[in-house]
Write a structure and sequence with these properties.
The chain has 285 residues and is mainly α. It is built from 14 helices and no strands. The protein has one domain: MetI-like (MetI-like fold), CATH 1.10.3720. Helix content is 74%, strand content 0%.
Length: 285
């Protein structure tokens, strides 16, 4: 009995020391910068000193319809990106998990390959496809469908295409990880008992894959809300999103308190929306 207790204590100590580097990393590069951002959001611009002048005026700035429209546009971008990624990712993950047999490893390698490429390079790849002399306009012109090139680049359409293309693997892999562990005997039992393929999918496969859908949802929705690089490159800087506005405050205006306040304000909005979706996922599951 004492030996079991000692083994448990040793295992706990080993687990603690193994997790310590990750905790230190998060503390230095996440929690401390987050506290600095929150502190800066309450400081009046130009009065950063040993005894700063604390104020709430930075937050009162955002009670304007312009900022609400930016938040709504960013939420719409994140939701549409997530929804389209889910519609595209589920069939891919379903095929990889249940039907791709000897080609599974190769297809998974090709699917994970974009993770080794920078988002900037992935976005720039679409320049050669969407520009006026790009692949799409060249094909449409050659087929006689259009007479003059269509403006595809520097539009919201280009932004959505770039977002879906870059974030699709983040939705596929969590769903695949869940479907790959699915007990196929449940599907056989359902079909043997007279259920249709649609009923089997709706009542057995889809509920079993909900954890993967939930993980993929948050892996796509949360970073899409604050995405800056893709809207800036694909939209030509003509459309303002949350990430674009935060970058504008910090990089262009050099207004750290106001940029920090908007960062906190938009993060609270994102947290509330994410909690609502998390509650709905819990209800659905």
């Amino acid at each position: 009995m004492n030996r079991d207790i000692e083994n448990t204590e040793v295992s706990t100590n080993v687990s603690f020391f193994m997790a310590l580097p990750a905790f230190v990393w998060l503390l230095i590069f996440l929690y401390i910068p987050l506290l600095v951002i929150i502190g800066l959001s309450f400081i009046r611009k130009g009065v950063i000193s040993a005894w700063p002048d604390f104020t709430l005026s930075n937050y009162f700035t955002f009670f304007d319809s312009l900022y609400y429209s930016i938040l709504v546009r960013s939420l719409l971008l994140a939701f549409v990106t997530m929804a389209v990624c889910l519609l595209c990712a589920y069939p891919i993950a379903y095929f990889l998990a249940l039907y791709a047999r000897r080609w599974k490893n190769m297809l998974l390698f090709l699917l994970a390959l974009p993770f080794g490429v920078n988002f900037v390079i992935l976005a720039y790849a679409w320049f050669f496809i969407l520009e006026k002399n790009g692949l799409i306009n060249s094909i449409l012109t050659t087929l006689g469908i259009i007479s003059t090139p269509i403006q595809l680049l520097n539009t919201e359409f280009a932004i959505y295409v770039g977002m879906i293309y870059c974030y699709l693997p983040f939705m596929v892999l969590p769903i695949y990880a869940v479907l790959e562990k699915l007990d196929l005997r449940l599907i056989d039992a359902s079909l043997d008992l007279g259920a249709t393929r649609f009923a089997t999918f709706w009542r057995i496969i889809l509920p079993q894959s909900m954890p993967g859908i939930q993980t993929g949802f948050f892996m796509v929705f949360i970073p899409s809300f604050g995405e800056y690089v893709i809207p800036a490159l694909m939209g030509g800087g003509k459309y303002m999103y949350v990430g674009s506005l935060i970058s504008h405050y910090f990089s262009v205006l050099r207004n750290l308190p106001l940029g920090s306040a908007f960062t906190v304000f938009s993060s609270i909005v994102l947290l509330i929306v994410s909690l609502i979706f998390y509650w709905r996922f819990r209800r659905a599951t």
